[in-house]
């Protein structure tokens, strides 16, 4: 495994991973949870990219949001499902950086630097919201059931949120192969299929490595913003991938419509309406990428430890705008692909519908309407956004 030491090295590694993923992306989408994408994940885990945000003091390169966003976007433009697998991993590296005791950091960062991934078990069902937790950590034993556990199936460690005996939110890191840990492949959705974000069950699992997670959100923080930045980068990547495939199809396969031929078009790119649609969508995709870079730059300026609540709000709102807009653009681009390319492009052999399915599935990860709401509340009334992990 090649060590990542710079922004340029990280981007080069992302390009190599994306190139390795490209030949199998359609089959992985079709297989979904029926086939664990072991080879694809081995490319990711062996690339050195898992360690890119590990602090220099802990043996890592200490790279920041600008690198993380570009790496994620590059991989997501080819396979957004594989790009999403380490999303929580990077969040958890940030949590360890800020709140992990020295022994916890030593053990877990050693594995991360060796290419061993941390999966998540954070969300639950049945409560008032996904973080209304029933999972418990009592006397060092973890018991509960989690859903949407992206990356857990193939990880080395799983980080599970739980309430301790005092009812305080904690984060317990347990080995994936620990007795009592079961990760299912019950992931049956229309998009982001290869993430295999199934159910994880903990049955009286011993947990030695525990962090007080409640404290992370009792002070100004950028954990949520940095986690959402990765989601925004995935959406931009989906949009760029859909635009790329639309361009290739229009150049190589598409025929002009009957009306376009009557108007003098000899090829699909000669159709003035295709040109209009493509130009409009391409401009919006570039705008989404620009907002992503801007948001990453703001997070880089604010830092992992913001100076105060105003600085934290600045980072959170920059990412909120980028994420909300990128989701819209990804869905739009993946749909416009078919309007530009025509009926033949819907043939299952091309699997071009995966772009829309991926965009629509991923874009509802959290509600974009609330992101716009918080942006407006700040601009119009000076109301700071909530201090939680979804903004």
Automatic annotation (TrEMBL):
One Pfam entry name: Acyl-CoA_dh_N
Coiled-coil segments: none
Keyword entries, A-Z: Oxidoreductase
Species in which this protein is naturally found: Actinoplanes digitatis
A GO MF label: 3-methylbutanoyl-CoA dehydrogenase activity
Acyl-CoA dehydrogenase/oxidase N-terminal domain boundaries: 17-115
Name by which UniProt lists this protein: SfnB family sulfur acquisition oxidoreductase
Gene3D superfamilies, A to Z: Acyl-CoA dehydrogenase/oxidase, N-terminal domain, Butyryl-CoA Dehydrogenase, subunit A, domain 2, Butyryl-CoA Dehydrogenase, subunit A, domain 3
Matching InterPro entries: Acyl-CoA_DH_C, Acyl-CoA_Oxase/DH_mid-dom_sf, AcylCo_DH-like_C, AcylCoA_DH/ox_N, AcylCoA_DH/ox_N_sf, AcylCoA_DH/oxidase_NM_dom_sf
One BP term from GO: L-leucine catabolic process
Domain called Acyl-CoA dehydrogenase C-terminal: residue spans: 229-366
């Amino acid at each position: 495994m090649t060590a990542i030491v710079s922004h340029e090295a990280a981007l080069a590694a992302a390009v190599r991973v994306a190139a390795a993923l490209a030949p199998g992306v359609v089959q992985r989408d079709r297989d979904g949870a029926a086939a664990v994408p072991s080879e694809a994940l081995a490319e990711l885990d062996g690339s050195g990219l898992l360690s890119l945000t590990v602090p220099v003091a802990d043996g890592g390169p200490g790279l920041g949001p600008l690198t993380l966003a570009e790496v994620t976007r590059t991989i997501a433009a080819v396979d957004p499902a594989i790009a999403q697998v380490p999303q929580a991993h990077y969040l958890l590296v940030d949590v360890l950086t800020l709140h992990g005791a020295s022994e916890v950091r030593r053990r877990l960062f050693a594995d991360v630097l060796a290419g061993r991934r941390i999966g998540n078990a954070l969300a639950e069902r049945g409560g008032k919201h996904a973080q209304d937790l029933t999972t418990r950590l009592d006397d060092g034993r973890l018991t509960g059931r989690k859903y949407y556990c992206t990356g857990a199936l193939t990880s080395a460690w799983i980080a599970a949120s739980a309430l301790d005996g005092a009812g305080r939110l904690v984060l317990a890191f347990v080995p994936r192969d620990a007795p009592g840990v079961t990760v299912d492949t019950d992931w049956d959705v229309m998009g982001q299929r290869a993430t295999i974000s199934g159910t994880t069950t903990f049955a009286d699992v011993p947990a030695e490595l525990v962090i007080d997670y409640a404290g992370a959100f009792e002070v100004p923080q950028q954990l949520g913003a940095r986690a959402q930045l990765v989601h925004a980068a995935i959406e931009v990547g989906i949009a760029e991938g859909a635009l790329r495939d639309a361009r290739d199809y229009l150049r190589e396969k598409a025929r002009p419509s009957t009306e376009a031929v009557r108007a003098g078009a000899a090829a699909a790119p000669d159709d003035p309406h295709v040109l209009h649609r493509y130009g409009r969508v391409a401009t919006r995709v570039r705008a989404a990428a620009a907002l992503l870079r801007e948001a990453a730059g703001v997070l880089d300026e604010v830092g992992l430890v913001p100076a105060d609540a105003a600085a934290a709000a600045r980072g959170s709102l920059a990412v909120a705008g980028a994420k909300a807009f990128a989701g819209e653009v990804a869905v739009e681009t993946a749909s416009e692909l078919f309007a530009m390319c025509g009926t033949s492009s819907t043939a299952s052999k091309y699997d071009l519908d995966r772009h829309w399915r991926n965009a629509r599935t991923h874009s509802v990860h959290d509600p974009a309407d609330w992101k716009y709401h918080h942006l407006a509340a700040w601009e119009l009334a000076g109301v700071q956004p909530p201090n939680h992990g979804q903004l």
